[in-house]
Amino acid sequence: MTNCPECDEPVAAEDRFCEGCGRNLLVRTTPVGGPDGTAAALCSCGSAEIDEDGFCEQCGRAQPVGRDRMEFVLPTVAGISDRGRRRARNEDSMAFGHVHGRGVAAIVCDGVASSERADEASQAAVDAANTVLVDALVEGTDPERATVLAVAAANRAAGALARAEAPDVAPSCTYVSAMRTDDGAVVGWVGDSRAYWLADVGNATPSRRLTKDDTWAAQLVADGVLTEAEAVNDRRSHVLSRWLGGDSGQVSPHVVTLRPEETGLVLLCSDGLWNYLPEVEDLDAARTRGTTPVELARELTEHALAAGGHDNITVVVIEVGVGRGR
Amino acid sequence: MAAEFAVEVFQNEYLTDGAREVDAIVTVAASGIPAGGVAAEDVAQVLVVDCSGSMRYPPTKLAAAKHATTTAIDALRDGVSFAVVEGTESARMIYPTHRGLAVASPRTKIEAKRVVRDLVADGGTAMGRWLALADQVLARHQGPLKHAILLTDGQNQHETPAQLSRTLASIGGRFTCDCRGVGTDWQVGELRKIAEAMLGTVDIVADPLGLAEDFRAMTATAMGKAVGGVSLRLWTPEGASVRFLKQVSPTVLDLTGRRAEAGPRTGDYPTGAWGEESRDYHLCVRVRPAGVGDRMLAGRVSLVAPGGGVLGQGRVLAVWTADEELSTRINREVAHYTGQAELAEVIQDGLEARKAGDVETATAKLGRAVALAASSGNTGTAELLAKVVEVDDPVTGTVRLRPQVADADEMTLDTRSTVTKRVGKGG
Ligand SMILES: [Zn+2]
Ligand SMILES: [Zn+2]
Question: What are phi and psi of A82, to 5 degrees?
Fold first, then answer.
C-alpha cells in the first residue's frame, strides 16, 4: 500500500488510477517541455529567503531558473540537467518515465552548440523519444525495436525545427537512451552522449562504458589512424560524426543490451560530465556507494561544476536489476 | 496621480575571475508629479536672512537681501506654511514672532514683508544656530515637504567648525536647505558643507541684484516638490561592502557616510525631496567573488518613501566570466561620471593649491580639470575654468594660471565645480 503522489489518497499496487484525483498511477514521466527549474528550498549558502527574481536575500547568488537547473525524481530513476558555469544556456535535455511493474525509460540529448535553438532541439527529441519508450514499456514492445523507433521519433522532432533557409544551422542534438525492463537494459545512442554500467562493489558484472562516441576522433581510433591517447588531445575529439536533426538524414542508433547478473546502475550523461570523468574507473572513484539515484546525480553534477563546469551537465541514473514490481 | 520613481541601472555586470568590485550608475527619474506640486498645506518654508554687520556694506547688499526675501514671500502659494528667521550671532524669529509657522495668505504675506523691510544689519554670524532654529520651527510642520533658504554674506565667525558640524549631524536630513552666498566674503567650503548635509544646493550670487530672481526660483522649485524625505535604500549581499554611493547628477554629492542601517545588509541614504526630476547615482560595491559562470545580485536599490513604501527599484548584478572581451568593457555611464567626480575634485584641489601659492600643483590640477571638462563636453565648467586659467591646449590640459583672477570668478568655479554634465544628453 502506498499513497497517491498527487493527493496522498491511499492506493493499492494494482490500481492504475487514483480513486481520489483520477491520476494515472501506472505511468509517471517527466513533463513534456522539461521539468520546471528546481525551486531549491535552500540557497547553497543555507538561506531559505529567495527574492521574486530568484536572488538569494543573504548571499545574492542567482538561483537557477528554468532550464538552468532541472531536477526530477521518479521511483528508481532520477536526473539532473545543469547549465554549468560557462555556457549562457542549458542546451541539454533529459526525459524519463517509470511504468509501474514494467520498467523505466530515460533519454539524454545534448544540443549541438553550433546549431540554432539547440535547446529546443534536445527538448523536442527527448520528449518524442520518451513517449515512444514509455508506450513500449506499457505495451511490452521489444526494447531494441522500441529504441530504434524512439530515435526515429526524436530525429523527426528535432528535424521539424529546421528552417529551410538555414539548413547548415538546423537545430540538432546527440542522443542516448536506456530502457530498463526485468530482462536488463537496452541502450541506444547517436553522437557522444554516453551510457555507463556502474556495478555494485564485487559485482560479477563489472562497471563499464556501454557506448562508443560517434566522433571523428573515435572513428579514427577505430580505423587505426589514431591511438586512444592521441584521440583525447585531438581537436576532432568532440566533432560529431553522427547526430539528430534536420541535416542528419535517416539515423539508426547503435544499440547494446545489458543483462547484469546483479544490481547496479545505468548512468546516462552528456559530455559536460564525462569530460571530467571520462573513464568508468574515474566515475567509480568519484561516486559514493549506496546513494539513491538523485543523490548520485547531484554528486556527479557537483563534481563537474567544481571541476569548472565548462559545458552543460546532464546526469540520469537508473537502478537496474533490482527485481520485479519496481 | 501619485509620483512614480523609475530606476534604471547602467553597468557592465561582467567581472573577470576573482574580481570583486562592481560599479553601476543608477538613474532615478520621478514622474507623475501633479502640476504645481503637492497641496499647499504639505509645504513649509523658512527663510533665513543674514543680518550680521557686514550686510551693511555696500548698502545695496542688505537692500537686495530684503528685496529677495520679499520676492520669495510673494512667490509662496497661499496655504503654504512659512517663517522668516533673522541670523546674527544668535537666531531670532521675526515672522511669526513665536517659534512656529504662519500660513501664507494675502494678509500674512503683507505682514511678513513689512517686518522684513524693517530689518537692520547688526551682529555676528553663527549659521549653526540659525539652522537649529529653522529646524525647531519646521518640526512643527506636519506635512512632508520642509525647505529652508539660507542667505549669508560672511564667514561663520561666532561658532567653531566643530559646533556647526555637530548641529548639522543632528538636523541633517530633517529638511532641505539651499544656501546662497552673496558677495565674495563668504567661504565656499562652509556653505558647501551645510548644503551637502541638508541635501540642498549652494551657489554664489556675486551681484546682489540677482538675488530676488534666485529666491523666487528656489521657492518655486521647493513648491514643485511632491515627495519629501525620500531615502535610497541599498541592499548588498552578505560579505559585501559599499565602497561609495554618490549622487553624480545634477551635482556630485557623496552620500557614503550618510548611511543609516535599515535591516540586515540594508542601509538607507537620504535623498531629500523630489519633484519632476531625474538624478544619477554612482554606486561601487565590493562583493565576495564567486566562481566563473555565477550570477550574483550585487545590490538592490530602492527609493523608499518616509512611510517605508517602495517607490521604485533597480538591480545591480555581477556575473563572473572567463570571456575577457566582456569583462574588460567599460560602461559608458560609469566612465563618464567617474570623470565628472574627478573633475569636481581636481577643481577644488587646484583652487586650494592656488590659494596656498603652490603654482605647480594648481597648474597640474586645473590643467587636468580643463582636459576632463573638454573631453566630457562640460562646457559650463570649461567656461568657468577659462576665467581662472589661460588654456593653451584643452585636449592635453596645458594651462597657465592667470595672474589676476576676480574673487567672484574663482568662487563661482569653486561653488559650481560639483555641477556635472549629464551623460549622453545636452547641457
Ligand atoms: Zn490522487
Ligand atoms: Zn545564498
Answer: -125, 140
Greatest distance between any 2 Cα atoms in chain B: 73
Instruction: Quote the ligand 1 centre to A23 CA distance (angstroms).
Output: 6
B407-415 helix and B379-386 helix, angle to the nearest 10 degrees = 150
Model confidence over B120-156: pLDDT tens digits?
999 999 999 999 999 999 999 998 899 999 999 989 9
**Cα separation of B2 and B8, whole Å?**
19
Q: Are B298 and A61 in contact (CB under 8 A)?
A: no
Please report the DSSP string for B70-86 in residue order.
HHHHHHSPTT-EEEEEE
Residues with Cβ–ion distance below 5 A, ligand 2: A 43, 45, 47, 56, 58-59, 61
Residue from A299, A175, A119, A174 nearest A317 by CA: A299
Chain segment A108-159, per-residue pLDDT in tens: 999 988 788 899 999 999 999 999 999 999 888 999 999 999 999 999 999 9
The amino acid occupying position B239 is G
Instruction: Map residue B267 onto helix, strand or coil.
Output: strand
Mean of pLDDT over chain A: 87
CB distance A110 to A91 below 8 Å? yes
Greatest mean pLDDT among A17-26, A317-326, B274-283: B274-283
The gap between the terminal CA atoms of chain B, to the nearest Å, is 30
Give the pairing of strands B295-304 and B227-235.
antiparallel
**Which run of H or of E encompasses B53?**
none
d(CA A316, CA A29): 13
- Structure confidence at residue B303 (pLDDT): 95
Reported ipTM exceeds the 0.95 cut: no
- Sign of the C-alpha dihedral computed for residues B254, B257, B263 and B264 taken in this order: positive
Task: Write phi, then psi, for B302 (nearest 5 degrees).
Answer: -125, 145
Q: How far is the CA of A14 from the centre of ligand 1 (A)?
A: 14
For residue A86, give the nearest of B235, B292, B300 by CB distance: B292
Q: What does the alpha-carbon distance between residue B144 and residue B228 come to, in Å, rounded to a whole number?
A: 5
Q: Burial, B103: exposed, middle or buried (Cβ in 10 Å; 0-12, 13-18, 19+)?
A: middle
What is the mean predicted confidence (pLDDT) over B284-306?
91
C-alpha cell at B374: 573638454
Query: What's the pLDDT at A14?
Result: 60
Select the residue of B237, B291, B295 nearest A58 (Cβ to Cβ). B237
Beta bridge pairs of residue A50: A56
**Which of A203, A86, A105 minimizes the C-alpha distance to B291?**
A86
Nearest to B249 by CA among B412, B424, B366: B424
Separation between Cα atoms, residue A147 and residue A324, nearest integer Å = 21
CB A91 within 8 A of CB A68: no
User: What is the C-alpha separation between B198 and B253, in angstroms, rounded?
Assistant: 11
Sign of CA dihedral A159, A163, A164, A169: negative
d(Cα B206, Cα B180) in Å, to the nearest integer? 10
Q: Torsion angle of alpha carbons B358, B362, B363, B365, nearest 10°?
A: 140
Cα–Cα dist B26/A278, whole Å: 47
The strand pairing partners of B401, in sequence order, are B389
* Parallel/antiparallel/unpaired status of strands B14-16 and B241-249: unpaired
Is the Cβ of B20 closer than 8 Å to some Cβ of chain A? no
**Is the pTM above the cut of 0.80?**
no
Q: How many whole angstroms from its chain centre is CA B418?
A: 9
Q: Which ligand is nearest to the CA of A56?
A: 2
C-alpha distances (whole Å) from B20 to each of B100, B239, B296, B395 are 51, 11, 11, 33
Cβ-count burial A159-197 (b if 16+ within 10 Å, e if not): bebbeeeeeebbbbbbbbbbbbbeebbbbbbbbbbbbbb
Decide if B265 touches A, using CB distance below 8 A: yes
| Other beta carbons within 10 Å of B424 | 10
Give pLDDT, residue A38. Answer: 59
